[in-house]
Amino acid sequence: MSAFMSVAARRTAAAALAAGALVGTFAASASADAGGRLHRDRVEISGAQYDSPGWDNGTNRSLNKEWVDVTNTSRHAVNLDGWTLSARDGRTYTFHHYRLAGRATVRVHSGVGRDSGRDVYQDRRRYVWDNRSDTATLRDDRNRRVDTLSWGGHRDDRDDRGHRDDRGHHGGHR
Question: Which residues form the signal peptide (predicted)?
Fold first, then answer.
């Protein structure tokens, strides 16, 4: 009986080793994929001021206090040429010849202004973002959704990270 146990024990050990090798192979492959993702560019919508402070009077100053921040969380610069930032109603801003440095943020203002390294302007004469509820969507140059940020009345909308955004806000200019 002891010989039978040793054969059974050897078979069990061999099966466990084979299973471990198989799991190790999948884990190595998964970590290689994760490692590849870690080196890929990571750009996200990091904040928004969708209700410009004060009275929404339509002045350029008020329009430029309405903005969305786009942040590169990686260490490497990302070429945003052809990327878009859009509102739920289809109003879209397209980045042209813009390179976002590593660990940097660019603020996309609604109004008219002079683009710089930290601020770009949509050059609009009307508000882009709805104060009550809207969704900002960032897409890459291949039209793939990179990130979203939602607020207000449609609180059940989820962003690409699977998180629900509960940042409701009062008032509205639309």
Answer: 1-32
